[in-house]
Amino acid sequence: MSTVVNHWINGAEFVSTSGRTSPVYDPALGTETKRVALANQTEIDAAIKAAKDAYPKWRDESLAKRQQIIFSFRELLNSRKGELAEIITSEHGKVLSDALGEITRGQEVVEFATGIPHLLKGFYTENASTGVDVYSTRQPLGVVGIISPFNFPAMVPMWFFPIAIAAGNTVVIKPSEKDPSASMWIAKLWKEAGLPDGVFNVLNGDKESVDGLLNSPDVESISFVGSTPIAQYIYENASRSGKRVQALGGAKNHMLVLPDADLELVADSAINAGFGSAGERCMAISVVVAVEPVADKLIPKIVERMGKLRTGDGRRGCDMGPLVTREHRDKVASYIDIAEKDGATVVVDGRNPQVDGDANGFWLAPTLVDKVPTTSKVYTEEIFGPVLSIVRVKSYDEGVALINSGAFGNGTAIFTNDGGAARRFQNEIQVGMVGINVPIPVPVAYYSFGGWKQSLFGDTKAHGVEGVHFFTRGKAITSRWLDPSHGGINLGFPQN
Ligand code: NAD
């Protein structure tokens, strides 16, 4: 019998009795290693109730005490992140060094949240009108819901919960059913760090759990990260019921290469951003837009580097691991078939890979496709795998127009040594995160993360100061001085 990953409710494992489960695989072995519980309405209600009951006490806890708990959590996480990395690799498949990298990026937000007393400070203006002072405060919302994707089972939840908890909210997180164990490990770590029971709850499940969070009048906000169709669904439904929503969606990120670029840097960057985490990153580079005549010089440099990449089990020091499930591997591989049918040139074909791993793993090696028609699904759809496309354009302007015509606007990059071109690109490109000679421009945790267009619904962005704003509501208070001379009836609009 497989192990069942249950829920974590009110500071303890909550054994599911829903009778519904979903398989969790070790993608490098290609075998089911666990099953994850899929919550029913009773379990959804129990998780939300635990968070609701814990809220008044946690909200009233002093900032000093909250800060100490966040510090303890940070120390525990930092000293034991190797354990979490192993869990991530065993369910997601990404190589161990990459799993550690994801945790480190999430830990940045935990560290940011340790400064919460400073971040929650309000403003005060004395004598705004005669004898009247005005000030503002930041107050927590209550129970907040987090719904996360499979590709960053630790980092994406950590974009949200450190700030939400530090600000005095209580959390129900619904992890991806493909890799649910990271959230359970994190829940136990919070308990060890001294977080009161009920402040951090894990609700495992599928659409039913998501809808349970969206429909509950006790959940004040939803932070979602995942694919665009689901992000849009979440945005529409959660905002209809009056919740705050930040819903981050899919991506199709381009890297524009001008003829004057440093092609060694470009080739290294294309490899890192195209094939890191097997391309299962929302900030992965999916398309290299080569301004002619650069493509013919660039492609051999990329191909040479691809030849050195080792695909295999993430526990064996390989460069790239498997894809998350067999279905996802097959879907990604089908885009290589489409590329061939649509007249593109498959320069490096990853469909029959040599791997350092079990033959049953969900493998697909790095693939490079040149001359991809921009009408092909290979170009228009998010592939989310190790398939890098090259599109050749005649000019900078044609490249920018192409990138701006896309449905997504998550990340992009320009590679050039021309400062003027870089400056123009930064202004002209309609994308949320822009790199100049940096292929994956994920901002550090004290800046906000998020794309434009179909890559983000809602007007807030994850973490940073905007994260603090999202998880709190501001309150402006006007206060009159206790001076009897200001009394008496006055029907006019308050003036100075
Ligand atoms: P997904 O949309 O399939 O799932 C995300 C979450 O939504 C999961 O918790 C899942 O259980 C839930 N879900 C799935 N189907 C649902 C439905 N019909 N109704 C309600 N809930 C549902 O995404 P995924 O495959 O787990 O993750 C990959 C996607 O996430 C990619 O598109 C990637 O670009 C995107 N992503 C975006 C960012 C970003 O910052 N913009 C970051 C990471 C991943």
From TrEMBL:
InterPro entries: Ald_DH/histidinol_DH, Ald_DH_C, Ald_DH_CS_CYS, Ald_DH_N, Aldehyde_DH_dom, MeMal-semiAld_DH. It comes from Candidatus Planktophila sulfonica. PANTHER family: MALONATE-SEMIALDEHYDE DEHYDROGENASE. The keyword NAD applies. The keyword Oxidoreductase applies. CDD domains: ALDH_F6_MMSDH (cd07085). Residues 15-476 form the Aldehyde dehydrogenase domain. This is methylmalonate-semialdehyde dehydrogenase (CoA acylating).
